[in-house]
Amino acid sequence: MDSFCFSPSDFVYKALSPPFLLRILFIQLLIRVLFRLRFSAMSSNGKSTSEKPKGVETDSSTGSINLIGTPYVSSSHTISEPHSKQGKGEASVTSGLTKLSGKTSVSSGVLIGVPKSRNPYGMKNGVSSGVRGKAVVSSGGKGKAIVSAEVVAFRSVKYGSHDGELRFRLIHYWEARNVVTKVLIGLEMLLIDEEETVIQGFIPAGRIDTYLPHMRAGGIYRLNTFYGSNNKTLYRVAESSFTVTFSTTSVLSDLDDSSVCFPEDRFRFHGYEEFDAACDLKGDLYDYIGHIKLVNGQVLGENLVLDDADIASSRRVMLHVQTHDGPVMKLYLWDKAASEFCERFKASGGTAHVILVTTLNPKRLGGALALSSMAPSRVFLDTDVQATRDYLNWMNMNLDVANRVNADIVTKSETVTIGELFSYMKQEDAKVVAWFECIATVGDVVHGSSWYYIGCGVCHTKATKGPTSLMCKKCGKTSIVGVAQYLTKISVYDNDDQASFVLLGDAGHELSGKKASELVEDYFEANEDVGGDHLVPVPQVLIDTIGQTRKFVVKVSKHNLTGQTQSLTVTKVMTLEVPEVEANLEGNVAVPDTRETLDKEDADDDPSTCFGSVKRAADKVEAEDPKRARSG
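-> structure tokens emitted (632 positions)
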């Protein structure tokens, strides 16, 4: 037992021995270090993100950019969660500006649409914008900070997701609704970049409230992350094949005081011939500029008064317009475009003469070409934009040309005889292309020449034969699908005179009840031994029309006025049972209420979800012998 006993002096010696003491000191030091590390970590989470870590620089972009909210930084004010409280460990940013040395990091402001953003890595959110200002508008992206990205030009936008940055001016925006149900589908936009490239933008309905309050027409913005979707094929407002779609990770911010110049607008003007070629094709929507001849049937002057009650009831303004000394057309302005015109016209004191309307849909009403406004249409008068100012200057220096057509003649309504048609063509002052209605009887169908031509399947322009395929000069394509179109010469007569009419396109279909392409195809199927160059004889359905009396809408063309040909082009054929419609010299046939007709036709092709001229050759019947319609 003695061997297990030790004296107090032995205990003191063992307790105070150096190895034992070092162990105690090391444990105490380790406890303190761990405690300090824990305290330091908790403190760092509570620091303001406006501080910049020493030795760390953030990216900055050129130009002054107003941010409208930044992801992953909780703001003292949010729209989506106005009463939300700062969670434990979350960073906060005050609404005031923080003066920093060196490069700017996070700008302050209002956070839109970003729910309780946390930095998942506990790191500081040093976001470089190169400016101070508002916060970024985001649809709720998570996990990334908004930093300066590579700037993408509109011409480089392709299909799929993009992480780059777009910089643009917002020209215009409008609601996209289903034509039938009126349900809001989204917000469509017209955007232009510094290269003057125009592209269409789209914000889905569920994200409109996030971005729309911070958008204004004419504003300059940048957009980080977006989706390139295919542009719609019907009623396009831009040439680009793609649309910039705001995705769930898109972030929109103001771009102020930029050194880059963004054009204010860009117009795509079409004249009468181009609109006539695109009539009823429901393709791209182009812009028109010209001078006003009539407003709702009234001649411009001091006594012109707009009937507000009638306009509000019909939601329509009907104008007769003319570009330089070209044909006079009817221009229908609907809803917002009609209201916009009335406001601007009244503001001018009723003296405005020049008009520019964007994104118009060309339609054939009563056999005559008419232009109709669409949802994205905008209206400008006289001095509103540079294009109208330039036209106004031309008009003031060429009043004799602009006033060549008498407005009273434009609205003249009557059905003429064949003799009156010839009389008009012989008048010395008859220098304007015009349309008439004429009741006549089919006397014969001209044989010995082709009754059809092969046209482009898209624009109906007469196809030309290339080395190995058919080509279209208007579309610029070297290989197209050829489609047979009517170009049939008939002899007609009334009580006193006879004339030669040329059935063109749909007019032949309306008279015979059969499409030219069907008749040609049926013939070659029944005669497989004939070659593609074989001339198809006049079909029986056309011969059967001999003796029928119809109402023809005929066009007096420049070739008729100059005496190059006496054959008159037929653009529409109607039965006598159809109620007569108002016609006039300029082909502006007024349908009593065209709104219902337009809505019905447009409803079949919802423009919101779809996201040259046609050389009719009727004035030169001596066309080349058509071949079998074929694909290149």
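DSSP finds 15 helices and 25 strands in the chain.
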